[in-house]
Automatic annotation (TrEMBL):
<comment type="function">
    <text>Cell wall formation.</text>
</comment>
<keyword id="KW-0573">Peptidoglycan synthesis</keyword>
<feature type="active site">
    <location>
        <position position="291"/>
    </location>
</feature>
<dbReference type="InterPro" id="IPR003170">
    <property type="entry name" value="MurB"/>
</dbReference>
<keyword id="KW-0132">Cell division</keyword>
<dbReference type="InterPro" id="IPR036635">
    <property type="entry name" value="MurB_C_sf"/>
</dbReference>
<keyword id="KW-0274">FAD</keyword>
<keyword id="KW-0133">Cell shape</keyword>
<dbReference type="Pfam" id="PF01565">
    <property type="entry name" value="FAD_binding_4"/>
</dbReference>
<dbReference type="Pfam" id="PF02873">
    <property type="entry name" value="MurB_C"/>
</dbReference>
<feature type="active site" description="Proton donor">
    <location>
        <position position="221"/>
    </location>
</feature>
<keyword id="KW-0961">Cell wall biogenesis/degradation</keyword>
<comment type="pathway">
    <text>Cell wall biogenesis; peptidoglycan biosynthesis.</text>
</comment>
<protein>
    <recommendedName>
        <fullName>UDP-N-acetylenolpyruvoylglucosamine reductase</fullName>
        <ecNumber>1.3.1.98</ecNumber>
    </recommendedName>
</protein>
<keyword id="KW-0131">Cell cycle</keyword>
<dbReference type="InterPro" id="IPR016167">
    <property type="entry name" value="FAD-bd_PCMH_sub1"/>
</dbReference>
<comment type="similarity">
    <text>Belongs to the MurB family.</text>
</comment>
Length: 299
């Protein structure tokens, strides 16, 4: 398989038995059999087609921000698009490749005095991940500004889809169910005033840095907001703040976060998530739904 992969992409972009904890925000996860980092859309298509032809498992990693990889790692081919990072601006439209950080897209919008993406200035994920889960914060979400996207389907075909074709809802889209790989997104923004846009972004950045436990590795907000409640408040009121399993801890700074405080394993992190869900269900009869993805195999 290695020889076939390096016939498509440079050997520098194929890693064998690569520890995925080096590529996730939680610093968790076992090894990938093959981790590939394509640099062109055609390479993405060819790798998908190779996986299909060889009947080998294929997994898209994204930039690893909203993700937990289990301790047993991932078999087959794992793809990371962190080398597709172009951001281009044409009047009020921004075309950003999927590996670009959505934070950087919001900053590019600021530099061109375009408004609409201020909410994304503190979201750590990639453009592809932002579309995958219709990422949002502080009252804004991707579906408010997305015009269209270019994707590769499970057969390796290149498609251009409108935002309406993605079924974007609260923290969800049809991208995972359809098996799409996002390659780029076109955002439609509006002209604004630099000082006003920057003031909003500075305020949101301050709120994020003062309230979120950025000093430890984490997957970000673990749970979706349950209707009529706030996940962090439910967890806090359940007496779970500071609760620890192994090296994983419910953050003392923000109860909606679970941090890798001390060399946690993925198993410890996942066990703590389940403990939080069970406790909140028992105390408040509210089922917390995970926002974070869990992939890979147990040891």
């Amino acid at each position: 398989m290695y020889e076939k992969l390096v016939s498509i992409i440079s050997p520098n972009n194929v890693m064998v038995d690569e520890p995925l904890k080096n590529h996730t925000y939680t610093r968790l996860g076992g090894k990938a059999d093959f981790l590939v980092t394509p640099e062109t859309y055609q390479q993405v298509q060819e790798i998908v087609q190779l996986a299909n032809n060889e009947d080998i498992r294929f997994t898209l990693l994204g930039n690893g921000s909203n993700l937990i990889v289990k301790d047993g790692g991932i078999r087959g081919i794992v793809m990371n698009l962190n080398k597709l990072t172009s951001i281009q601006i044409n009047e009020t439209k921004i075309v950003a490749q999927s590996g670009a950080r959505i934070i950087d897209v919001s900053r590019a919008a600021l530099e061109e005095t375009l408004t609409g993406l201020e909410f994304a200035c503190g979201i750590p994920g990639s453009v592809g991940g932002a579309l995958y889960m219709n990422a949002g914060a502080y009252g804004g979400e991707i579906k408010d500004v997305l015009e269209s996207t270019t994707v590769v389907d499970p057969e390796g075909n290149l498609l251009t889809l409108s935002a309406d074709e993605l079924d974007l809802e609260y923290r969800s889209s049809n991208i995972p169910n359809k098996g799409y790989i996002v390659l780029e997104a076109t955002f439609s923004l509006r002209e604004g005033a630099y000082d006003e846009i920057k003031a909003v972004m500075d305020d949101l950045t301050f709120k994020r840095e003062s309230k979120q436990p950025l000093e430890y590795p984490s997957c970000g907000s673990v749970f979706k907001r349950p209707p009529g409640y706030f996940a962090g408040k439910l967890i806090q009121d359940s007496g779970l703040q500071g609760q620890q399993i192994g090296g994983a801890q419910v953050s003392l700074k923000h109860a909606g976060f679970i941090v890798n405080k001390d060399e946690a394993t993925a198993t410890e992190y996942i066990d703590l998530i389940r403990h939080v869900q069970a406790t909140v269900k028992e105390k408040f009869d509210v089922q917390l739904e995970r926002e974070v993805r869990i992939i890979g195999e147990d040891l």
